[in-house]
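task queued by scheduler; priority normal; single chain, no ligands, no partner chains; default sampling; output format set to structure tokens
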Amino acid sequence: MAAKKRQVVGGVDTHGKFHHAAVIDDTGRQLADQQFPATQAGYQLLLLWLRRAGRLVKVGVEGTGSYGAGLARYLSDAGVQVVEVDRPDRKARRRQGKSDPLDAYAAARAVLSGRATGVPKTRTGPVESIRLLRAGRRAAVKARTAAINQLRASLTCGPQQLREQMQGLTQADLVQRCAALAFDENRLADPLEAARAALADLAEQIRSLNVRIARADRRLGKLVTAIAPALSAVHGVGTDVAGQLLTTAGDNPERLRSEAALAHLCGVAPIPASSGRIDRHRLNRGGDRAANSALFIIALVRMRSHAATRAYVEKRTRDGLNKKEIIRCLKRYIVREIYTALMTDLTSPNTA
């Protein structure tokens, strides 16, 4: 009976094939730990095991954006409050060691102490669809870049005859010329024929990746415009930037309590660095760096084509700020506008 009345907090160290769970009481006393398979049946057993220890208040889960995504969704659907937990810092690991039970107990203690308060993304709505499409597009762009670099390297190190034929061509013309190269399959022992074959294959690969990227752009363009009309209308926000900012915010905008919270998430909130009589702030190097990069792109676009921004830049330049400092200020101002647009789009009934 006493076990049923006590409040308990769970912690989970997640892995690809199994999760290690631990449970503590409301005083921080370690009660038990156990390993469960990372399957739907394993999630059910893990939750039952936690609830047998007492009245379950919260569960801290590591890696809610990767290995712990499935477990976080299952626990949330079961009505359990899930808290996103960062991995233990290196200093703590050097002092206490590293093991799955230690990490699970550390996750539970982080929740109990209030150090961990993050709300994980639900990953069950249209923003998750955008994230998946963007991940596929990013992989295709990376593969195309590698193929183009390999094509140019093959030309640089290849036969002189081919190098002279391809000199001075634009990238599009170079791919087209290489794709049209003829070669003899029976004479591939000849370096010239082998070079032609290799270049033709690389060119075909680049063409195929171009088609994949264009298809992803069309899909993303339609989806982003439908989901986030207010965000898409912000000056300087294109499809890729909007997709990144939506992915950063997630499907559950309530996790962003204010525009200041979004600024911290994007790494554009200044960090106090004052001491004694010196009152200053330093650059925030934390947060989602991809979102920070998206804000940087918006700032650059506005500095070129937005009258109010250009006037602000001129004013701040007269105040003695350099370009980097002005961009940091701009990103913080832009977050306010982005936050309003995100809340408008993601809380709209039409978003679902």
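post-processing summary
- Residues 191-227 form the longest helix (37 residues).
- Strands lie at 7-14, 18-25, 30-37, 55-62, 81-85, 271-272, 281-282.
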